[in-house]
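Board notes (copied after class):
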Amino acid sequence: MNKVEKSLLDTDILSEIIKRANPRIITKANTYLSQFEKYTISVITVMEIVEGWQKRKQEQRLQQFLTILNSQEILSFDLAESVLAGKIYADLETTGKRIGYPDCMIAAIAICHDLTLVTGNLSHYQRIQDLGYSLILDNWRL
C-alpha cells in the first residue's frame, strides 16, 4: 500500500466526507485519519462551508461543523499565500482560463505548505499546474 501524503482537503472533498455519501471517499478519508489523526483544511474551506450552511439556514449543522473544527488542522491565509494567490489569479486571467478567487487561495495555501491538494475539481486546479506552479493534486473520488 502506498504511503499517504499529508494533504490539504478542498471544500468539495470535505463536504463529501461530512455527508458520508461516497464510500470511496470515506475509505480514503479513514485511511488518511489513521495516519494523520486529523484533516488539514484551509480557512477558505471553512468560509465556503459556513457560507453554505448559512445560506440554507442550517444553524445546527453550522454549529456541528464549527465544533468539529476544534480537532482539525486549519491553515490560515497569510502574506505569502496572498501574494502567490494573486500571481496565480493574474496568470490564469492573462491566459483566459480564470477560476474563482477561493480556488486560487486554496491552491496557494497547498503550494506554500508543500501539501497535496485533495479535490474532485481537477479541471480548475489543473489550469494552475499547466502554468507551471508546483501544485500536486489527488482526487479521492477516483
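Comment from the instructor: The mean pLDDT is 95. The CA atoms of residues 79 and 85 lie 10 Å apart.
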